[in-house]
Structure formats: structure tokens, C-alpha cells
Amino acid sequence: MKLRHKLSLAGALCALLLPVTTAQADAVSPKTYNVWQWNVAGDSIHDGRTDTGMVDAAVGSIVYRGADFAALNELCENQYDALVAKLRIENWPQNADNFARFEPSRQGGNKAICKNGAYGNAIFSKRPLGPADRIALPDDGTAEKRNMLCAGLLDGSGTRFCTTHITKELAFSTAQLDAVHTQLEAHSGESVLIAGDFNAQPDYGRLNTFYTASANTPNNPNNAGEYRELDDNDEGQCLGYGEWTVEGSGSNTPPCGPNAKIDLIFVRESALAGPYSADSLGISAGCTYVPGGLCSDHRILTGTVTVK
User: Fold this and answer.
1) Which of 67, 116, 167, 215 is the most exposed place for a label (fewest CB within 10 A)?
2) How far apart are the first and last CA of the chain?
3) In angstroms, what is the C-alpha Rg of the chain?
């Protein structure tokens, strides 16, 4: 055998025997994430203000709960800017210049909304984010142009975080949910987490394409999808359905009480590498300039999940 061939073979064998670096091992090891979700009613309750206490309540909860990801719906852009500034002060993000994304569902320039500012969805990540995917959902004919906002982590883990806020218009809800599902499946090889206000209860038929059959219970039957919702396995909180996030029942009476769950955190079942759980938190009553002091008409939803 010629010398150069011997050297090439020896080099290849050595490469096979080299230890995996710490960074490489960390990138492929299972990851446990804390996920945080809140529809803050930034215009309808807070009138686009940043001084009501809602921003401080959100920052305090994100930090206290040790969130790795946070999603907010119905957020005014000036409130988003305030959240970015306050999370920096709290040293929450690893990279203070790359941890947040905002996508308007209503543009600025309308004095009736968010004090003439934009209004929409936002995601925040403790770890640095890659480029955002900003997906327009099927138009429901209203002034609000619904969207889905996603970004992947830059750490090589293959983790992607998304949020969405689905319309209340029943004629368009299924089409928007189908569009969200299609986008999630386009990244099925990654560990995708999505948190948002789906304006649909877990037992609604239009979510059967999300929930996997392994989540079937009398409270949430007939599922045929690929996803688990982080609050679907709590036997003490309506097994298969989860704990309520808004007062009232919507169009269907919830299976376990008078109040509905429409805020959801999904993960693909095939991405699971360990346990998961979620909790619905009571609404803070410490906000000012708002009726009754309630900071939102939605509860905060938090969850923990281990993914591949």
C-alpha cells in the first residue's frame, strides 16, 4: 500500500476514535424547556399602555418561572419594546441583542388600536434565536391579519419555538388551524414547540388533527394527530383536556367545569424524550387603569417538557 493511502486510512481511523466534543454532545442531548404563554389583551384591556403593571407582571412571571421560551398574544408593539427592555434589565436573555421577535397582525397608524401602534404576537427566548418565519394565515375578512411566528435556536439543538393567535370566526378557524399544522409538520424533524391562543377547546373536532390518539380520553376523544398538549396528562385537571385558561364556556360546554381552555402548548409526540406537564396560573389583579384591576382576561399557561 502506498504511504499516502496508509496515512489517509490512519487519519480516517483516528477521526472515528476522536471523542465527541462537549458542544457536539450538548447539541444532541435531550433538552428540558420551561414554556410560558399569555394572551395579555394589550389593547382591549390595557389600551396600549405600558404603565398598567401588565408588563411588569409578565417580566416577573417569566423570570420567576425560569422560562426558556415565552409567547404573548394581543400585544402592542410599544408593550413589546418595554418587555424587551425590562427583560434585559433582569439579565434574562443570554444575548441581550437577539432574544425576541414581534409580528404585527394589525399595522400601526390606526388611532383606535394600541395608541396608533402595531398589534400582534411576540416570542422571547432565553437562548439566541435564528431568523424568524412570519407566516400569514388564511384571511378571515376582519381587520386583523392572523399570523404564525416561529424561530429556531442557534445552538444546534434543532429546537424551534412558535406562537399563533387563531381567529374566533368559526368559518375560518379550521383553515387557519390547518395552515398552522402544515407549518409544524414542515419542521417535523426538529423539536418544535408552539404556544398560543388557539380559540378552540381541546375537545373540539377541529383540533383532532393536532392531538394524537394516545391523548384520547372521554374529555377529549377522536384524535388522530401527532401532538401532545403539555396539560393533557394531569389526572387532577380534566385528563386529556387540561386546566381552564379563560372564564366562560365558549360555544361548547367544557367537559370538566364552566370555564374553557383555549390557550395551548403543543409538542410533537415523536419529539418527546421525557416527562411533560403544565399549569394554568391565576390572573393577577394588581394592574391599574384597567377594570377590576385584572391584568388580562386570560390566565398565564406554563409548561415543562423534555425533548430530543
Assistant:
1) 116
2) 44
3) 21
